[in-house]
Every structure is written in C-alpha cells, then in structure tokens.
Amino acid sequence: MKRDPHILFTATFRASFIQQDAALLGELFPLTTIVSSGPKTVFRYLASIRRATITYSWFASVYSSFLVLLARCFRKRSIIVLGGIDVADMRELGYGIWNSRWRAPIVRYGIMNADAVIAVDGFLKSEAQRLARYDGANIDVVPTGYDGAKWKPSGEKRPFVLMVASTPDEARVKIKGVDFFLDVARSLPDVEFVLVGPSAAVSRTLQIPPNVRMHEFLAPQELLRLYQQAKVYTQLSMREGLPNALCEAMLCECTPVGTKSGGIPTAIGDAGYLCEHSDIEAAQHHIKAALHAPSERGRTARKRILEQFTIERRRDTLKALVERLNA
After folding, report:
1. Which residues contact 84 (CB under 8 A, 6 or more apart)?
2. Are 83 and 107 in contact (CB under 8 A)?
3. Segment 310-325, tens digit of pLDDT
4. Which of these, 188, 162, 172, lies nearest to 257 by C-alpha position?
5. Residues 58-92: tens digit of each pLDDT
6. Of the chain's two ends, which shows fewer C-beta atoms within 10 Å, N or C?
7. Residues contacting 210, CB < 8 A, separation 6+
8. Which residues touch 303 (CB under 8 Å, ≥6 apart)?
9. Distances (CA, A) of 236 to 70, 115, 204, 290
10. Taking each helix axis from N to C terminus, what angle separates 122-132 and 103-113, rounded to the nearest 10 degrees?
11. Rg over CA atoms, the chain
12. C-alpha–C-alpha distance, residues 181 and 162, integer Å
C-alpha cells in the first residue's frame, strides 16, 4: 500500500512567495521545512530525507540539485521550482548561477533529473530548456498565486508612479530597471515617482532626481498602503519571472506599465501598457496615459489577477502534482 506523501520542503532564504508555497502544501500534506544554507544544510537534508517521500525545493541551485541526487539514492521523488535567477545567464552583469563554471553543470543535472520542475512563467521554462539543452519534458508552468483579500484597493488614488525593486547591488539596479526608472522620472519632472527597494549602499551610488521619493524597505502593511494610493505601478525590469510586486499592485487597482521582459507581459496582458526596456519615450507616453486613465483601467488590472493568478489554482495544481508523483 502506498504511503501518504510527506514533503521535505527546502529553500535557502525566506520570502513571502516561498512561505506561501510552504503554507499551501502544509495544509494538504505532512511537511518538514528546512530554510538554510551553508555546509550544515547537507547534514540537515541527510537527517530528514528518510521520512520524506517527496522533496520540494525553491530555486534550482547546488542545494536543490544535491536533493535531487539524494532523492534518487533513497528512491524518493523530487520537485524543483524555478524562480528567475536560477535560469539567468547575463554574463555582462555577472548575474545568474549559469555564469559559474562549476555550478552550471550541477544545476543542469538537477533540472534535468528532477521528477518535476515548476516554472512560474513560460519564459522561465524556455530559458531552462535553452540553458540545460534538453526538451524540458519534466517542466510544468504553474504561476504563483495572489490573495485578493489581502491586496485590495482602498480610498482614492493619487497621481504618482510606484515601483518596487529589491536591489542590493549594482547588477540588480540594471536588471530590475532602476536606472531606467530614474531616467524616466528625470524626463517627467512634474510627475511624482516613488521607488521602494534599493539598499542604502546602492542608493548612495544613484543620482536621484528631486521628483523621486525613496524607501529602502517597507513592511507589508506599509507597502499595501502605497499600492492603494498609487495611480500607476511600473515594472521596468530588463529581466523577470512573474513579478510578485506587479501582481500585488494590480490587485490594488494600480494601472500597470511594464517592459516586454520575461513574465511581465504575462501579468499585465491587455490590462495596462508595455514598452521595450530602455525606450524612454515609450515609457513616458505610457505613464502619462496611465496617469490619466479612467478608474476602470485599474479595476481591469485587479480583475485580471483575480482570474488568472489565484492561490486556489496554485494549491490545486501543486496538490495534483504531489499526488501524481506519489501514485
């Protein structure tokens, strides 16, 4: 008789989207969670693998690839979730695990040999196929889900443009489009812009126009209030998976303006405006249009996320996948 699945859930850091998956799976199955990095992590995996039936790892990495190998040795099943940087190879910026000569083949092994790989957007699936040089038959596209009861509109919108971009270093400034955002802000001096995410060290290297207000970090409740106030949300990244902040802002009825990069068009669809990265003139035009768009535009953005990217859809798909692997 087949035993009920017990999941060994792993990640190397904490993030809201990772914790959400842990919560969803923990509601459905017994779960052992390890959020850890460093040499001791290997021993924690070894101590926990025997009672698990399936390993579930956020991001393709040396750690998740080791778990795929460990799962094979112990006749367990394995799942890897692709998030973005794990299928990036931007050598000119030193961004992405595929830049490393010794990490790249290990990650390739993990992606190719996991029983299932989950990509949050089709762009990440195509990148995994390209970098690992295989057909991607084990990859399913399962978007992350968002809570419309948590991220919701409230009160009147104000005419400012918001972007959230965690940028701990100069490479992320370019990848997240912070430099592009500041150039656009500089070209629209009469418009208020708000930027959340650059570290204090990074902020000191940036030339901040007077019409840009900066926040290094905001608690979720403070971020919610900004989403609720902002008329326009921009995601001007050079590269993205499926951007969480963009989807959260759209749920709060921000009119979205984004680049045609990665999963940004997947999120925005026909609910907002899209331009090429670094096309300042197009970004200017779209931001002006979004600032003057009727309220219905924001309601359309919220409706799109509610219909296309629900928590229930992700939970049900993960449940079906775990049950299939455990059959």
Report:
1. 120, 124, 239, 240, 241, 262
2. no
3. 999 999 999 999 999 9
4. 162
5. 999 999 999 999 999 999 999 999 998 899 988 88
6. N
7. 189
8. 271
9. 39, 34, 21, 14
10. 120
11. 20
12. 10
Of the CA atoms within 13 Å of residue 102, those in its CB half-sphere come to 0
Length of the chain: 327
Inform me whether the pLDDT recorded for 233 exceeds 90.
Answer: yes
Q: Is 202 left (phi over 0), alpha (psi -120 to 50) or beta?
A: alpha
- Phi first, then psi: what are they for 145, rounded to 5°? -115, 155
H helical segments located in 213-276: 220-229, 244-251, 264-268
Quick one: CA dihedral 166, 169, 172, 174, positive or negative? Answer: positive
Q: How high does pLDDT run on average in the chain?
A: 95
| Residue at token pair 């049900």 | 316
Angstrom distance (rounded) from CA 327 to CA 323: 6
Which residues, other chains included, contact 275 with Cβ-Cβ below 8 Å and sequence gap of 6+?
257, 258, 259, 260, 282, 283, 286
Please state, as a whole number, how many other Cβ atoms lie within 10 Å of the Cβ of residue 207.
Answer: 9
CB-CB contact of 280 with 188 (8 Å): no
Query: Which DSSP letter does residue 197 get?
Result: E
Rounded distance between C-alpha atoms, residue 93 and residue 294, angstroms: 39
Q: What are the angstrom distances between the C-alpha of 144 and each of 14, 111, 147, 243, 307?
A: 16, 19, 10, 9, 13
| 2, pLDDT greater than 90 | no
Beta bridge partners of 195: 163, 214
Helices (H), 95-219: 103-113, 122-132, 170-175, 178-187, 200-203
Torsion 56-62-65-71 (CA) sign: negative
